[in-house]
Write a structure and sequence with these properties.
The chain has about 375 residues and is an alpha/beta fold. The chain is built from twelve helices and twelve strands. The chain binds pyridoxal-5'-phosphate. Pyridoxal-5'-phosphate binds next to helix 3. The site of pyridoxal-5'-phosphate (PLP) has 12 residues, from helix 3.
Amino acid sequence: MASPQPLAGLKNIAPYIGGESEITGFDRIVKLASNEGAFGPSPKTLEAINAIGNDFHRYPDGDCNELRELISERNNLPKDNIICSAGSDELISLLCRSYAGPGDEILYSAHGFAMYPIYGRTVGADIVAAPENGITVDVDQLLAHVTEKTRLLFIANPNNPTGTYIPKSEVQRLIDGLSKDVLLVLDSAYAEFVDREDFSNGAEFVTANENVVMLRTFSKIYGMGGLRLGWGYAPDEVIDILNRMRSPFNVAYPAMVAGVAAIQDDEFLKMSQEHNIKWLKWTTDSIRDLGLEVPDSVCNFVIVRFPEDKGTNATAESADVFLKSKGIIVRRLGGYGLPDALRISIGLEDEMKIVVEALAEFVGK
Ligand SMILES: *Cc1c(COP(=O)(O)O)cnc(C)c1O
């Protein structure tokens, strides 16, 4: 019997698997699986959200004028080149739909963010993964994997799930070597956490080039993952296309209201950054002291590796099972080509102490 058929290839897409959020039988669960920011939304954001009350029967401003104005002011970027979105995921999707199709190639870095290949496949493009230098983006490998068919190149800088970054000199080298008809997407979801002199959030490269886009999100340091709010900064032509492609009311009113409050809460941002610097270092050092391998991270998470050649029975899987038995949820990274690693978000002070204590028990220290 005839039946409706989806576009070719859609059935081969493995859907995104988010961090788990529930295990039963615990009074308290320590959830460190989705990098959502240690504190949740800022007090000013909560105030603004609560003030909405029942006032949401009107359609929102489809152009997000107030929020774009604030993003523009705070980042010193032209408002007309800013677009807001239902999470930065929406922009990844819109970019794929706008710039690639069947027969085209979308290039990314081997341990890059999962949504690039997922959205890339939805438009029928071929996904090409360039090998990394260890677990860090390798500019030479990316350039070596560009072909005549490459339309889009995605890198998260710093990258999730590895926590690594490339300095701005390397981003510049990538741009210099890249054909001008390839759109480079710099996904800076974790930019606010990075405490390095040689890092750029990518905005300067958008300003200086016609083929570079920067993506940002309110889901991580602003603790607003549940509201779905992101934004992008792009050259005129790209902004024009994205505005044609997006839904007319792609950002929900509560998300807009929350974003306006969040971006003005400098105190919360600073507090979150300082917290992360302190507990990222503490967590890294403490887990290394247990004899476990923790690569340097500049994000609000670390990965812990359990390489097989260490000759112990400790694997990422057994560690994960052990942590779960203690009510602690972290992230397995098999889907990212890192089956020997767990990713642990930086949470509150007591959460980090609980997870380090549990890992100490796991390795018998
Ligand atoms: C979390 C994350 C996103 C998605 O953020 P949303 O704004 O919640 O859609 C994008 N890129 C990277 C690298 C992320 O880790």
